[in-house]
Amino acid sequence: MFVIIVGGGNIGSHLAKMLLEGGHTVKVIEERPALLEKLPKELPAEVIVAGDGSSPLTLENAGILKANVLAAVTGSDETNLVVTSLGRFEFNVPRVIARVNNPKNAWLFNQEMGVDVALNQADILARLVAEEMSLGDMMTLLKLRKGEFSLIEEKVHPLSPSANKSLREIELPNESVIVAIIRKNQLLIPHGDTVLQPADEVLALVHASQLKQLAALLGPKERIIRNG
Fold this sequence. Notes:
By secondary structure, this protein is an alpha/beta fold. It has helices spanning about 10-20, 35-40, 55-60, 75-90, 120-135, 210-220, 220-225; strands at about 1-5, 25-30, 50, 70, 95-100, 115-120, 140-145, 150-155, 175-185, 185-190, 200-205.
């Protein structure tokens, strides 16, 4: 996959390193002299493109016509929106991602401005804090399909409604499935007659709307009352 990143600050350079480690082709566009001096210490020289990322000519020089993904992650919302509009409507990039710096501008980052995915850091942080507070000891390991599903891990509480019951006895939420159980450092593949024991670490795939229901089944009985 070929990804063009506009903005060589901390976010842009870190993203570039991750993508390069994953075997992807990357170009980072940056125009600020201080960052252009710093970037070669962090990234291969051939990855760096000096210039204004909101300029069609600079984008063309970076190879925008062959890009699979364009990520606008500068510290300026105005610049990011110009970049996304160019990427989508001028160069027809299949996937366009943008960073939202000021939460008040989040409403602008939509498909009409060429944005497929808007990364609103303040909103993401607020949602994560709220989610963690509502889910007790449940830990989110991975989000899938733009957060629609989550791979979670939670330890079975001794007072859980599911403790000492076989999986076929437990009424899991409709859009959830237990994919593995870790017991005394051993990974178990679950079956209908598998009995959940206190302190088992359950790995489950679950729809976002049913996270609380699953948390109530695996946590202490008191949690059902609090979340009910």
